What we know:
This protein has 35 helices and 33 strands. By secondary structure, it is of the alpha/beta class.
Amino acid sequence: MSDTKTATKEQPASTKDRPIIVKGARVHNLKDIDVEIPRNEMTVITGVSGSGKSSLAFDTIYAEGQRRYVESLSSYARQFLDRMDKPDVDYMQGISPAMAIQQKAASSNPRSTVGTTTEIYDYMRLLYARIGHTISPKSGRRVKKDSTKTAIEELHRQHDEGTKFYVLFDIPEHEEKKLDDELRVLKEKGYPRLLHIEDEQVLDLTSEDIDADDINAEEYRVLVDRLILGKDDETHTRIAGSLETAFQEGSGRCSVKIRDGEELNFSERFEMDGIEFSEPTPQMFSFNNPYGACDKCEGFGKVSGIDEDLVIPEPDKTIREGAIAAFSGEKFSKHLRDLIKVAARYSLSIDTPYQELSEETKEILWNGKDEYTGIRPFFEDVKSQSYKVHMRVFYSRYRGYSRCPDCKGFRVRPDALHVKINDKHIGEVAEMTIGHAREFFEDLQLSEFEKEVAEQVLFEIRKRLKYLDEVGLQYLTLNRLAKTLSGGESQRISLANSLGSSLIGSLYVLDEPTIGLHPRDNDRLINILKSLRNIGNTVLVVEHDPEMIKAADNIIDIGPFAGVHGGEVVYSGTYDNLLEANTLTGKYVSGRKEIPVPDERREGNGKSIVLEGAMENNLKDLTVEFPLGKLICVTGVSGSGKSSMVHDTLYGAVENEFGSYKDEIGYHRKINGLHNIDSVEMVDQSPIGRSSRSNPATYTKAFDGIRDLFANTRQSKIMGYEPGHFSFNVPGGRCENCKGEGIQTIEMQFMADIELTCEECGGKRYRKDVLQVEYRGKNIHDVLNMSVSEAIDFFVDEERITNKLQTLDDVGLGYVKLGQSAPTLSGGEAQRVKLAKFLSKSSGNHTLYFFDEPTTGLHYEDINKLLDSFNELVNNGHTVIIIEHNLDVIKSADHIIDLGPEGGFAGGKIVATGTPEELVEVEESHTGQYLKKVLK
């Protein structure tokens, strides 16, 4: 145990010896339990799914912490406290300020990125505003504001003492004044001499034979002084005075003409090469406000127009081979011929694959040169002829979203991209992965002054990148949209943020932080949680992972089973004692009980689907075979390319063939073997419904049968009730105050919204007269409050209902209530509800099923049930493809595809394929090495 931990142990008795005590907790299925959680230690709460872990951790301990926090707020917030449900518990002591880090997508905001969510981008904006160098796009020179001091220093740097020179400024220009008026004003101000900049002839404006019409204002400068360069005080003072005068009269600009030599231009304005730049400010780099966002794309980085991926569908083709799809037909082939002529004239390669062409060549391809029109102008011309039907159809074929041409997809105003640190603008840094960004900021080459100015900002950036790297997210790019992150990724970002804030004395409640992590990365996450504990926090983790359980200081096992058969503390203590405990968790972690390795691997049906040339994100031109009629597991370390290959590319291409896939399909050359399957289903962790009125009973259609039963009772017939009266989705029998939701949401302005029980129906969803109708002594609300297992027993004679519910029980969801609101189901639970729906269908077709980490939230015992469901699907003639890290699932697969070897740019390759037994023989496979431990 570290020194920090020891130091924590030496706190005053008032805090160190005061554990969190919970007595008589009865939230949900908890059965009047007492729990003691040591302070400043890491406690893991485990147990089968639905046993009551989250009820204890989140709905009891965290909820009370949150409630006590609200008590300290304004009277506006406190007015809702009387209606905020206090956890059903007798007594609680020692609750610290609590923070919940749950498996929820970080944000649905299309502007929110990994960089903004972690505040790294905000610090980067500050860094670029403080020490960024604005570089002129014309000359590549640094843009600086001059002053009298810098102008004198420049003179001394470039020329020797004794050099003769003139101090000048431009003849002023005013729209309302003519040149002779300007010259008259100059004479009145005491500047009667002009210098011809080429031959250095002095023109005296006091001379009577001077005609303003003979003077070209661009060839002359106003002469302020003739001087000789020297370092003595008198000379220095005179030079400084003359320059100050020239700056003042020249509206911030002046020049120095060396006798018989060059002219040096100086400006107090922020300009270079005739371009006036904006001085960097933090707002200038923000794509979240109108000042910093690119005007064309409004800070989104993409614009509606021509999609590059549609125009160049196969970037591995050359121009000669027809890479530009729009020019491949006979109608527009003239543009290709023009391009070939221009390419020959400027030695541009037309036999190099498009993806390998230089940026300069691509610029010509898209914007044109000489007689070649260019792709963008070509499509602008097509768009202008949209009154012709065939042109409209042609344009729509290539329409989509493409990188904004103004900001090049970097989201910020174009002039912000002229500001660079170590030759990188802020957009280029935002496109880096966390791992590469960490290297970039660690290796920054700065001057002593810049180091001093940026020290604190750099410290904050480096600290946050370090934590993100350590929680296994080094493969994510800083500009990755937050809404595209998985639940596990967003949770680990929240964890890294918590570490970055360095809070002490808090209670952190985490919900399965190992989700989405390969076993290789678990150690790093465990070390992060320990460091959170070591700085003086109490860490409470709901978890099933054996490594996390082993690393805990204290373990609470809730059980013995799920739902009404759970809710008890079956074990509390250390890991060593858990190995001897007579609980399901104890039996599995000690090896007394285990998920068996299949006796043999299925041979499949001899057919397969082959994906060729997959290159989405970090995939390295993969060709992958998926044998049909098998349980296939795609695995690999986090960020290795599993989702890019399976979800974005394979599923996208197959779904597009069978249906209408709305998202962008990952780039690939072709896919073979689709005639071998009849349909496709993606069983992911998205909610089964966005409305709180959606629930397992409605999703599986079991509720249809239940409503019919209630409508057929004698009481209903007397009252004239139809099945619709027992639906909370339509007006009729539902409570209209809450529209059948049972809750009302109160907007708390700057705080999270609070959900309160409907005062009219008391959360029962229905009108009082409808609730008087009973079936076997239960009204419709009582039935919706039953767990799936209870409902199966209650409706034992109604096969129409029990057949639908039995599959929910089979996948381990017997503890879920029929009326549980869809948004409150975890990702893993939502996925298993979908699985149950498919299991209840009896179809002779060959369906290709995709599952994305189905073990989320599952105990060993539940994984056993889940594998039975998968095997049932495969034995019925279907194919199941699973993205998974869980070793018990991987060891049960018939065929494994292992990607890697690392995450991000270092991934995207196939490390190994074959059976689990074949995988353990591959030394480079991280998965194979961990499999050795479970394949005995």
